[in-house]
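Suppose you are handed only these lines of text.
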Amino acid sequence: MLYADYNGSSPMLNEVKDYLRLRMQSNIFANPNAIHSLGQKINSAINESRKTLAQYCGCDPYQIIFNSGASEGITQILSSILNEAREDQKIIITSPIEHSVVLNILEHYEKVKGFKIIYTNVDLHGQVDLNHLRELISEYKCAIVCVMAVNNETGVFQPYQEIASLCKEVSVPYFCDTTQLIGKVPFNFNESQLDYAVCSGHKLGALPGSGFMIIKDRTQLKPLIFGSSQEGGQRGGTQNYLGIETLAIAMKEHFNSYSLINNLEQEKLLFEKNMKINFPEVQIIGEDHPRLPGTTLIGLAGIHGQAVQIELEAQDIFVTTSSACTDNNPETSKVLKAMGVNEDIGRSVIRISLSPSCLKEDYSKLSKALGQAYLKLKKIDAFGY
Ligand SMILES: Cc1ncc(COP(=O)(O)O)c(C=O)c1O
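From them, the structure of the protein bound to pyridoxal-5'-phosphate can be written out as follows.
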């Protein structure tokens, strides 16, 4: 089997599986908020994990709040800010390439609370237009700027550090969706000058259902889930302590394998180059900007992406079309539409996303299987219906 959907979700890391096996055998399960010794043991493990994550993410342990993952973090952060927005600041500046979690919450605030959303331009290669964003920020008094760090479909890095500086100059809160960034490449919260960051454990190979947010100033955050004093009263409910422990294990493993990222990037570029030599008409989306190592969004004009996906699955290779969340939709994705990608290419794309643990042979296997699928499907007029 070749799993090539790491942006959708990462298989659990071996180190996490090993940890969990031993952890189960220890038979220490208790409520971390109980003051008996078992509870306190678990509470200490949570705080050790917090310290480890803070060390690898360049923040203070106090700035980390555990939760169920990115969607929850995004919802809590955005609602905390927007619920407090002044009447004369009911404007949101964002990009049209944000993940649906972000766009859906913002649209909710537009419909229900009378906010106005203003979208930045995005260039042909999938990066937010910084000059346009700068103009918007100086023209409008907004409640928040939301621009992601890395796009999940194209893998294109967004200029999030520059955006953080811009927002700082005018004292506007900046929410950066870091779901595809944390753990995949080195990240330092404080150096990036971000106000907020989010992470999902399943993107890191930790236990699904675990995650955390990093909050620069915790006084700005309102609870979404009310409980008692868990996570300083800002995220109620008994903590998912096994998940939390695996977050720290996984993050440490990623930190130790950052040296392999360059290799992955080189193998990806070679794969893309070979695809273009063999099939000059294929397009690598976002090719002109720095992209996440291991992510390729490839357009095979005239072919249906889902047909390619099925062909690959028959060979035990797992990819998605644009993103895992929209995989069931044969339409051109919103992200590609915002980039001005035409329908012919838009409906033909498949996303390949690998991790540094993947091997050179994985790209060779993909190259061969994708080439064969393309030659076969090219004979069929996919859009001739
Ligand atoms: C950029 C981005 N933001 C947010 C999310 C939501 O993450 P989750 O479904 O783990 O909450 C994803 C998931 O794919 C993502 O890629």
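What can we learn from it? The mean pLDDT is 95. The CA atoms of residues 71 and 101 lie 6 Å apart.
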